[in-house]
Design goal:
With 125 residues, the protein is mainly α. The protein has one domain. The protein contains six helices and no strands. The longest helix has 24 residues, at 42-65. The radius of gyration is 15 Å and the shape is elongated. The relative contact order is 0.16.
């Protein structure tokens, strides 16, 4: 399997997994803490978390099918940077926890960079 396909699968899987499990199937305590820190009501917090989960699953499928799109990959990098800043502002202690957003997001940005650097090769197939 090529680095392109590994990057594609890991990016897609990561978005889909993070949308499904800590947001849609079971709202993780850290997800609750993040939306609570925004000062939302319980109902609105639930809606925001579920909506974010749906968005992440959709984005995972977009990356899976459109991994050759520079726009999609740059949007992915922008979203990952934005989410990292969001965590840093609202729950900075999470940045030093095990399996934290720093390591996850930087790894996903790295996989995006692999795809971006191989985009000519991808589009010539």
């Amino acid at each position: 399997m090529s680095a392109i396909q590994i990057s594609r699968y890991i990016l897609s899987f990561s978005w889909i997994y993070h949308g499904l499990f800590p947001k849609l199937f079971h709202i993780a305590p850290l997800e609750k803490a993040m939306t609570a820190s925004m000062g939302l009501s319980d109902e609105l917090s639930y809606f925001v978390t579920k909506s974010a989960g749906i968005g992440e699953v959709i984005f995972g499928f977009i990356i899976f099918f459109c991994y050759q799109s520079r726009f999609v990959l740059l949007a992915n990098i922008g979203a990952l940077i934005g989410l990292l800043l969001f965590v840093a502002l609202l729950q900075p202690y999470l940045l030093i926890e095990a399996f934290n957003p720093v390591t996850t997001n930087i790894s996903m940005i790295g996989f995006s960079m692999i795809l971006l650097s191989n985009i000519k090769q991808i589009n010539n197939k």
